[in-house]
Amino acid sequence: MRILLRPIGALILIVVAAAAYGGYERLWHRHPSRVAEAPKPAADAPMPPAPPAAIAAARASTEPTPVEPPARMTSAQQAGFDAWLIKTYLACWKPPRQQGDADVYVAQMRLAYNPDGSLSKAKLVNPPSDPALKPQAKSVLAAVQNCNPLPVPAQYRPFYEQWKTKTIHFDPQVAAR
Asked: Same domain, yes or no, for 11 and 87?
């Protein structure tokens, strides 16, 4: 009985080793009687050229990527631009005197700009129905024309998509300050 266990034990050891090495089939196909001689490249043979995609990928990984400015203004930049815009228009606006008992009219102008800061379109959103307030509306239109083109500061120019259209409120109480 002891004699039979040795060959069975050896067989089990071989099967376990074959499984650990990568399987019986892998060992079976690598047996010297089953492996055909693969041609070996000559030592002085040139290397085949790399495919163009591999060359482009290698170059892209070594070249620094350009740093692009953020696509949108931060909320602080937006607030700064809005403050600058209002200050600029208030400097151009000369509101007419209003009677003490007249209603306060806050004109709203929808403005569209070209990238250089010049106006492409200006529209009074809320024209007054009271004839006494018409001079106020005319003064707002004059202010918009007097400020054209706007000297947009350099830090805001890259964000044209965010400021190409704006609605400005012309409040005479703010202008009086």
From this structure: no
For position 177, what pLDDT does the model report?
67
Do 86 and 1 share a structural domain?
no
Nearest 5°: phi and psi at 5? -70, -35
Q: How long is the chain? A: 177
- Residues 106-150: pLDDT tens digits? 899 999 999 999 999 999 999 988 888 888 889 999 999 999 898
**Structure letter (DSSP) for residue 176:** T
112 pairs with which residues across the strands? 121, 165
Residue 165: what are its φ and ψ, rounded to 5°? Answer: -130, 135
Q: pLDDT of 16-49, one tens digit each?
A: 455 555 554 554 555 555 555 555 656 666 666 6
Q: Which stretches within the chain are classed as H helix? A: 2-21, 24-30, 52-62, 75-92, 134-146, 160-163, 172-175
Report angle CA 93, 98, 102 to the nearest 5 degrees.
130
Residue 23 belongs to domain spanning = 1-33
Same domain for 88 and 154: yes
Sheet holding 107-113, edge to edge: 119-124, 107-113, 165-170
At residue 155, the 3 state secondary structure works out as helix
What is the tally of structural domains in the chain?
2
- Write out pLDDT tens, residues 63-78: 666 666 557 888 899 9
